[in-house]
Write the structure tokens for this entry.
Amino acid sequence: MGMLVYNGRMTLSVDDRVLAHLQVVVINKLRRRESFTFTWDDGSQEAVCWIGPSIPLEFVYAGNRRPLLNREWLELMASSANANSGLVVMPEPTPTTRIDEPRRPHQPQPEEPRRPARPSRPSPEPAPAPTGEPVSA
């Protein structure tokens, strides 16, 4: 069990896996100098914190290995943080991909058949070169 230390005074006990996901979402918001609320309910108490760039936060992990991150969970938490209700930790969805999974090499998509090029408009005939003779109308 890790800890989120808010403003050096309040400590919330948070599972390391949840804490790793919280850290990514919180740091991304603070990097953009965005403030928001964060609600944490550990079953015995509920805490609502105002998170802003000027408030010190510490993410303290109990274990020595960082958990793999779940992209879908990060996106859900980021959406929550952008809402009026603020960041709320919700249950982790089943991951379809993890962020630290090695990416497969890019496989090109089959090309769609191309439309035939439009026929070009006929260009106007070039004007005759001046011959030095007067032009009659």
In short: The chain has a mean pLDDT of 81. The first helix runs from residue 16 to 31. Strands lie at 2-6, 10-14, 36-41, 46-51, 57-60, 87-88. The two ends are 98 Å apart (CA to CA).
